[in-house]
Amino acid sequence: MVNKQPSMLTNQVIRDGLSYILRGGLNIKNGHLPNPGHQVPDDFFGVCIATNSDPATDSYVIKQLKELGVKNVRLDFSYDDLDKFTERFLKTLLAEDFHVTLHLLPPYEAARNMESAAEQSHWRTFLKAVLNMYGTQIKQVEIGNTINRKRWAGFTLDGFLGAWAIADTEIKSRRIKLLGPNIQDFEPLYNISILKTLQAKNQLPDVHTNNLFVERVSEPERFDHRIFKYRWASIFKYNLIKKSRLLQKIGHDYGVMLTASSTVFWAIYRIERLLEDGAKKQADYLARYFTLLAASGSLQQANWGALICHREGLIDDGLQDADYPALERVAHYKNVDGNLKNYTQQPSFYAMQTVVRYLSGAHYHAAIATGEGLEIHHFSNHHQQIHIAWVTNGRTAFLQDTYTASTLEAAKMLQLNGEPLEKNTALITETPIYLIWHEDSAIETKPRPALAKDLAIHIHIEDLQYFQFNEAGWKGLILAEDATEATLLLQSLHPVQLQNSHKTDALRLARNAIWTIEDPRDRSRQLTVKQPVKMYPHKAFLDRFKPSKAKRSWNGAMELMRRGITTAAPIAYFEKIDDKTLKQNFYICEYVKDDCSIGQLFSAFARGESSFPNLSPENVFSQLAQFCHKMHSRGIHFRDLSGGNILVNILSNNTLRFSLIDTARIHSFTHPIPLRLRIADLTRACHKLDWAGRKRFMQIYLGLTGRQFTWLHQLQFYLYDFKVGLKRTIGRKGFKRLLRRFKGSN
Known about the structure:
Layout: H1 11-22, E1 38-39, E2 45-49, H2 55-68, E3 72-77, H3 85-95, E4 99-104, H4 108-112, H5 117-134, E5 140-143, H6 150-153, H7 157-172, E6 177-184, H8 188-200, E7 207-211, H9 225-236, H10 240-253, E8 258-261, H11 268-271, H12 278-296, E9 301-304, E10 315-316, E11 344-345, H13 347-359, E12 363-369, E13 374-381, E14 384-391, E15 397-398, H14 405-410, E16 412-414, E17 427-428, E18 433-438, E19 465-471, E20 474-480, H15 483-493, H16 495-499, E21 508-509, E22 512-518, E23 526-532, H17 537-543, H18 549-562, E24 570-576, E25 585-590, E26 596-597, H19 598-607, H20 617-633, E27 636-637, E28 646-650, E29 656-660, E30 667-668, H21 675-685, H22 691-703, H23 711-729, H24 732-745
Parallel strand pairs: 2-3, 2-9, 3-4, 4-5, 5-6, 6-7, 7-8, 8-9
Antiparallel strand pairs: 1-12, 10-11, 12-13, 13-14, 14-18, 15-17, 16-18, 19-20, 20-24, 21-22, 22-23, 23-25, 24-25, 26-28, 27-30, 28-29
Helix pairs in contact: 1-8, 5-7, 10-12, 12-13, 20-22, 21-23, 23-24
C-alpha cells in the first residue's frame, strides 16, 4: 500500500493566508502599474544552468553565458552531485568569476521523508560538506524547490520547515546569503504562511524567492484569468507587475526586504497549443516579461531557466518531448541532454542578450503607455534614453500616432535581437522594439498614444511586412515583401480604381460583390476582391458600431494565420474615411483554386454519390474533424462555418488541405473556445450531411475532446435545421422565392 503524500496546503497555511488577505494585506493602490523612478540592479538578470558528463559542455555553457552578457547563474546541486560532473562544473564557474546562486536540494525521496531524524541528519551532513568546500566562494544559497508542488518537491510542510531550520543554521553561521522558500507561480497563501512561520522562529531568508510564472496566462501583460476567471480579470487587474509588487509587499510585511524570481520560462510546446511560431513567440514573451519586471521595481533579481532545453531553453538541445526528464526542470535542473553538436541558439537567446545589454543597471523613468494593450517603457542607460515598445498579441499601433516626426527621425530603432530595425518601421507590434536617443534628446510623444483601433495583424509572416495607406480620403494596410511590391500592388488595387471595377462577371453578387482581378506580381495568378454592396436596414444600423466589413475580413484572416489555420492569404484592405453607407470598403486576398468545398463533398455523401471516388466519408470526416478541433482549440469561433466556406484541395495520398474563406464574422479568443460555441460552428458545417454522416463526424470530433455525441448535442443540430427552414419559408429567402414564383406565374 502506497502512502499518500500530505499536501503543503494545510489548514494552518489557509488560516494564515486568509487572515492576511482579510486584513487587507493584498490591497495595493494601482498595484498593476509600475513604480516610476528607480534603478534596475546591475545584476538583475540571471539564468539557470546545468551541464553533463562531457567536459566540453562546461566550456560551451561558459561561452554562451559570456555571449549573453550574464554573470548571475543558478546551479542546482543535490546529494549525488558531489564528486560528479556538477561539482566539476561548479569549480569551473567559480574559477571564471561567475556569481553563483547554489540551489541546494535533497532528492525527492529524501524530501518526502524529511520529518525523520535520520533524513534530517543526512541533509545536515550534505549541507556541511558543500558549504565547507565552497562557502567562501559562492554568492548565495537557495533552499526550497517548488515546495508547493508536492509531486515535484516531495516536501510536507513540517518536513520543509525542518530542512529549512537546519539550512538556516548552517548557512547563516557562515555569513552566506540565504534565499527561499521558492514558491511556484503566484500562490500567495504559501508565501504568507511560510514567512510568518519563519519570522516567528527567527529564521527568515535574506531574499524571498518565488518562481513568478505567468506562462499559463499566456502573455506577460495579461490580467490573470485563473484568479477570478475571464469576466473579472480586468477588474482585479492581477497582472505580472501587480503580482511582483504583492510578493514584495508580503516579504516586507514579514521582514524580508528583498524579493527575487528564481526561474521562469515559456515552454514552446505550450505556446504552440494556441499559436504558431512558438520559438519566435518565446523570444517576444521573454523580452516583454523581463522589461515589465525591470519596470516594476519590485525584484532584486530574475532568472530564466533553463539555459539548454528543447522545451523551454534559450538553446535547443535538439531532442523531442519524449526525451524530457520525468521531473520538471523547474523543480530540479539536474543536467542537460542531447549531443553538443546539435545545440542551437533560439531567438529567445538573442532577445535575452539584448535585454541584458540595455536594461542591466538602467534607470527606469516611467511608463509612456501601459495596461491597455500598448506598452512603452522609458529607461536610460549608457548615456542613452531607451523606449521599449510593444503591443499585446495580434494588435498594432502606428509609430506616427505615438511620436512626433522629429522624435522618430532622431531615434535609432533596434529589433528584438539588437540588430537595426529595417522592416515594419511604421508599426509597433507584439515583437518589442527598442527606440534609442541620446541622453540629451527631447522625446516628444503624441497625447494619449493608443492601439490602432480594431485592427489585427500577424507579425510573424516570413519575408512580408505591412505598409500603411492613407490617401484621398481612404485608409488601410497592404501586406507586401517591400515598398516596391506594395507600390506595384497599389497600382492595381487602389480603392478609387476598385470603385470603378467591372462586376458583371462577379463570382458572387448578393449582399457582397466578389470578383477576381489579375495579380500584378504574377499575371498567371488571380486575387479576390470583396465589397459590400447591399445593406439591410437592421444590418446597416448594427454594423455602424463595428469596423468595416473589409477590416473585419482582414482581422479574421489575420487571427486564423496567427493560429496556423489556413485561409486565403490577405493582401490588403481599404476603407473610406467617415463612410456612412458602410459599402465603401474593399478586402483583397489571394484567390484559392480549390478542388471542391466541404459543402459539395457532404452533399455528395448525403446523396450516396461517389463524385470523389478516392475519398471515403470516414477519411474526410477524420481530417476535417482534426482541422476544426485545431481551430477551436486555438481560440477561433468562426461563426459562419458553412460548407461553402471550407475549401478543399486534394493532395497526394488523399490528404486534404482545408482553406477557410469569408472571415468577417470570426470571434477570436486567447484560450480554447467552449463546447457550445464549437457545436454552433459544426451545425453549420454539417448542414448538408445526412444524419448518419453527422453522427459519425461528430463522434470523431468529440472523441478528440474526450466526449460523446449525446442527444443534447443532436438537439442543437435539429434547432439549426429548424432555423434554416424558417429562413427558407418565411425569412428573406422565403420571401424572395415567393416573389419569384409570383412573377413567374404572370
